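Changelog note: in this version the structure field was regenerated for every chain. One regenerated record is shown below for reference.
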Amino acid sequence: MFVEIGALIQKSIGKSVLEALKDLEGVELITIESGRSSDLFEERQFGAFGEAAILTIIASSNNKETIFDELYNACGLHEHKQGLVFMTAEFVKSSH
């Protein structure tokens, strides 16, 4: 079984977070995209919007808690409180 773990964080830290997590045991897939957010970040480079990184991890259910905690810490959310980390319910990987 697998879970999706994701984060919406400031773009400036997105790549360093990806690098910190990509080799963790249980990480099956990790991707990063960029976008803009109008409500999570104080720094707004585009008027009402700030640049955001959208990080998505597909992880083994056996390692989900460790990966979630590592993601939270790598994002620095315990210090900055600017971002969002989430985890979905477990799902089964399909081969189709």
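Spot check on this record: The CA atoms of residues 17 and 26 lie 16 Å apart. The two ends are 16 Å apart (CA to CA).
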